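Can't paste images in this forum, so I'm doing it all in text. The chain is below; anyone willing to post the predicted structure tokens underneath?
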Amino acid sequence: MNWPMTRQTNRQTNRPTSRILSQARKELVQFSRDRLTVALALILPLGMLLIYGYAIRLEAKNIPLSVQDLDRSPLSRSYVERLFATNQFIPAPLIDSSPLSSLDHGLAKATVVIPPHFSREVAEGGSQVQILVDGTDVNNARVIQNSIRGVTNFFIQSLPNSVRPEGIRARVRIWFNPGRQESLYIVPGIFGVVLWVFPSMLSAIALVREKEQGTAIQVYASDLSSTEWLLGKGLAYWLVAVAEAAVVMGVSGLLFGLRLQTGPFPLLLGTGIYLAAAVSFGLFVGARTGNQNGAVQGTAIVGFLTSFLLSGFIYRLENIPFPLSLISNIIPARYYILLTRDAFVRGAGWAGIWFVLPILALQGFVLFKLASKIMQSMQLSE
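Text version of the structure:
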């Protein structure tokens, strides 16, 4: 009397959905038994978040600045005090009363020379201040130049109307991030790197481990297709990646004060698609390599370097030279970083990032199809 029920149960287990879920369940059980892998899956992303979140600072601070005040008047001293009041410069000694000696000895990155009769020339209509900047670091030199120019303009505006030079006044208001918190720019970019490297690395190692241990041969001999096998593995490590994303974003909210500036749906949907693409990339790398060292190197070198250097995380995409600028167009992290920075900083919503989701979905689909094709050819050859 139990035979019809048994036949129905077997028929249900032969369904593709049941086989995929069974494979995913098996992968999660194996993953949970390896405590070291579980710890690494959660600790390493947090470690990278803390290192990059606190260590990377794009705004130059504590720049050594020497001053040669040849006027020594109350107005010139007020100008010098204004320079150091920005907390961007720190005083540096002036060697041998020469504006170039401090630069030559590496004690200062810039020297301000205030001419004699500075206060009298300002009262008569204007004066010139000489700025000597160390141009060894071009970006730092540009920051110093713009900072001193901004302080000088602010100092001019603070002068009495009777001695203030006439000119155009610009009223600048910073939009989206008025407090100029660098963490609001750096940390959402870290999400794109962390959530690409570690999910792909875990899925690649899991697939290669099957090939090294020979258990993949059993899959080839079963009725489980290569696509179903990869879907089961991908689903398991997608769930692991979701847990990583929840931990990383939760800790970022506590430590760096990140708050959503728009509705959560674009971020949630985009994160799910992005994690699926990351896992698909790991499956592709695992299908192409034959050992775990190759899988780690493939995901770490290719995945990390491209998501770190060619995604707009630190360097502007417009500054990437040709032909590397073409490669940046196919880097998934580039589009996900646009999504996270919009969610936590800009808050434009669908109007600003509608194109991100279909691009990520297409890239993930292509990566999974490539991995499936490789595994299918291996299955047929076996």
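The chain has two domains: 22-56+180-381, 63-157. The domain at 63-157 is CATH 3.40.1710.10 (abc type-2 transporter like fold).
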